[in-house]
Amino acid sequence: MFKWKDEFSVNIEAIDRQHQELFKIGNSLYEIISIKDGVDRYDEVVEILHRLMDYAKYHFDFEEKMMEENGYPKLQNHKRQHDSFIQKVKSIDEKDIDEKQRTIGMDLIIFIANWIENHILKTDMEYKEFMNDKGIY
Ligand SMILES: [Fe+2]
Ligand SMILES: [Fe+2]
Question: PROSITE patterns, alphabetically (predicted)?
Answer without folding.
Answer: HEMERYTHRINS
